[in-house]
Design brief:
Elements (H helix, E strand, L loop, with lengths): L1 H27 L5 H12 L5 H10 L6 H9 L18 E2 L4 E2 H5 L2 H29 L4 H15 L2 H16 L18 H38 L2 H8 L4 H7 L1 H11 L1 H11 L1 H7 L4 H11 L2 H29 L1 H11 L1
Antiparallel strand pairs: 1-2
């Protein structure tokens, strides 16, 4: 398994290189860039005093060079105005919209984005698994119909609408101030127990809102997969030999039915980031979603490119974790890997 992980890490390098090229290519597809747009706006309004500074920025960040050179400079494989100074060297670029380095713009948002994604994934799995198992083992019961109805409502309800409803209920029923990441008096203060509790309390509503649709979909899939497995002959044989129903369920059909969900860990991350953009705007959460949306709208290419690359890295890590878990969960996959190595 260790050799497999090392090989996967090596494969990630060319994969990231290809992803970075595609990201930069797609971001560069629209005509113009942030500097060009600003120059056009200033010329249309007759304000030409700042055009000289914008032209200087264009040359300083190599926006006047061909596409291949701009990409190489951004990554750090081609010498720019300041030599080799790109992503590889630790320079994440410059945000023209915020007029500061990309690291300073996204630095405070990255930990919250990772924490929110991890908490949402845990919420989805912790809620979906027991409900999906219950619905499959109690088919056509009142509980099964109830959870099915709740699941359909979760799939049909837009996240931003659910966020507004929960904001109102949390404030009117429990007196909780929903929005932001912590209470205002903790902003700028050093980390403490009260600040951690405030962050956790403010994460509850976003996690529920973002995770609702994923939870509902996972419940339906787990129920269908389990129903497909529990009536197969190997389960009937194990039951006829006197194995307890709970042990039989966990040891055989559940392990087989879980494979698609473990494999989906990597796919959940980009969907959570993209699905949380509107929710983050509604709840005033300082995550990378609203920053990415603003960067794409203003063609702030270095900021948008880094955020998309960061999400891609999270996705690759999630897929590696899911493959490792699959190897431990399913002996067939583990033996298949060993056979391939032999």
């Amino acid at each position: 398994m260790l050799n497999y992980i090392l090989r996967r890490l090596l494969v990630m390098m060319p994969t990231l290189a290809a992803i970075s090229f595609l990201i930069f290519f797609i971001i560069e597809l629209p005509e113009g860039d942030y500097i060009s747009n600003q120059i056009s706006m200033l010329r249309s309004t007759g304000e030409s005093a700042s055009i000289g500074r914008l032209e200087f920025l264009r040359k300083e960040f190599a926006l006047d060079r061909p596409f291949v050179e701009r990409y190489g400079i951004w990554v750090g494989l081609w010498p720019g105005p300041n030599g080799f100074d790109g992503l590889i060297q630790g320079n994440w670029g410059w945000s023209f919209e915020y007029d500061q380095p990309v690291g300073e713009v996204v630095g405070p948002t990255l930990p919250l984005t990772v924490a929110l994604n991890l908490a949402t994934i845990l919420f989805i799995y912790c809620v979906a698994f027991p409900i999906g198992i219950y619905s499959a083992t109690h088919q056509y019961s009142v509980g099964d119909y109830t959870f099915t109805l709740i699941g359909y409502l979760g799939l049909a309800t837009p996240n931003f609408l659910l966020a507004l409803v929960l904001m109102y209920l949390a404030n009117s029923w429990f007196g909780l101030t929903v929005g932001g990441i912590m209470e205002e008096h903790y902003i700028g203060e050093p980390m403490s127990g009260g600040k951690v509790l405030s962050i956790v309390a403010h994460l509850i509503v976003p996690v529920i809102v973002i995770g609702t649709s994923g939870t509902a979909a996972m419940i339906r899939r787990l129920r269908a997969n389990l129903l497909d497995e529990i009536y197969k002959q190997y389960v009937t044989t194990a039951r006829s030999k006197g194995m307890r129903e709970s042990k039989l369920l966990v040891k055989y059909p559940l392990r087989v039915a879980l494979n698609p969900f473990i494999a989906d860990i990597g796919n959940l991350i980009p969907s959570l980031v993209s699905g949380s953009v509107i929710v983050s705007v509604v709840l005033n959460l300082p995550t990378v979603g609203p920053v990415l949306l603003g960067a794409l709208q203003s063609q702030d290419q270095f900021l948008a490119g880094f955020i998309l690359l960061f999400v891609s890295i999270l996705t690759l890590i999630g897929m590696l974790v899911s493959d490792v878990l699959l190897g431990y969960l399913d002996p067939r996959i583990r033996l298949g890997k060993e056979g391939a190595r032999q």
